[in-house]
Write a structure and sequence with these properties.
- 2 copies of one chain form a homodimer.
- Helices cover about 55% and strands about 10% of the residues of chain A.
- Chain A contains 6 helices and 4 strands.
- The longest helix of chain A has 30 residues.
- Chain A has a 3-stranded antiparallel beta sheet.
- Chain A is mainly alpha-helical and about 150 residues long.
- The interface between A and B is large, with 63 and 64 residues.
- The first copy, chain A, binds a DNA duplex (30 and 30 nucleotides) through helix 2.
Chain lengths: ~150, ~150
DNA sequence: GTGCCACCTCAAGTCAGCTTGAGGTCAAGT
DNA sequence: ACTTGACCTCAAGCTGACTTGAGGTGGCAC
């Protein structure tokens, strides 16, 4: 079996060596063994890391990903969890789209001052009612970059 | 003019007093004056804070919001910036929707192991090609909660 | 006039997900 | 034999948006 040096894994996944060591420390991946001090990985780890990157992009935290089971397990994710996260993502996607519409409206609005725009003012009031506050109460979700 | 205590502002916006002080420190808002040690705010600040909450939800960082101009200015946002951010939000929204579709497919996929699913494997390969890596090169964008 | 309590300041802590730095190891090429 | 450079460990640092805590102040009701 073709064993990979951490540098090879880095090249195949685009992840930094320090990130890989960090993932190992967090229990997301493991090395097949060592050659001297150096970690040696099986090629499996590349798929595993692809999955991790994917899961992160879907908003799973490293902790959640680690909790999804031991590194080598064939079954990568619980189907129920996946389905429910898909629902959340759909919701977020919708909210973002609404924000985009609002922004675009405000950008194109004929009023010379946004505070004259009823739509804009309605949105601001909604914001103060908590409609856009971070979901702290809803059980702190991870964050994703825009 | 009806002046507001920090506690009143808290009640009207749902933001914590410490967050309000922090926003002031960062130059996002300012108090109209003091009564003794206590900050006094005009009612304007409530709208201003609604706008800030909105902008945060749209992915603007506090620094960007602060850069959009002095607190009391009527013109809240540059239309070009708004329009371009709207485009970014649309893109993010689309990617999230694609992720949701993929997750849902994987959750419902007849294959007993996701690694047997061609769609899933294609996605993992894409992830390793950097398609889902955080946009570090694209100029670090702020983060938003899922 | 006194007690309470909402407010104040300033420094330090929190969270995730890494990165950076100092100081060390080791295998291979010249 | 020696250098190079890729790797190692461990601790500390970074970012953003706040929160928390200790210790202090002062306006208002009684």
């Amino acid at each position: 079996m073709n064993l990979l040096d951490i540098g090879d894994v880095r090249a195949r996944t685009g992840l930094s060596a320090s990130a890989l060591r960090y993932y190992e420390e967090r229990g997301l991946i493991e090395a097949a063994g060592r050659r001297g001090l150096r970690r040696l990985y099986t090629e499996d780890v590349v798929d595993r890391l692809g999955l991790i990157t994917l899961a992160k992009a879907a908003g799973f935290s490293l902790e959640e990903i680690a909790a999804l089971g031991p590194p080598q397990k064939g079954e990568p994710l619980d189907r129920d969890v996946m389905a429910s996260r898909a629902g959340e993502l759909r919701g977020l996607s919708k909210r973002l789209l609404a924000m985009a519409d609002a922004l675009e409206h405000a950008a194109a609005c004929p009023e010379e001052n946004h505070w004259q725009c009823a739509k804009f003012c309605r949105l601001v009031k909604l914001a103060n009612r908590g409609a856009f506050h971070p979901p702290a109460a809803t059980g702190a979700r991870p964050r994703m970059s825009v």
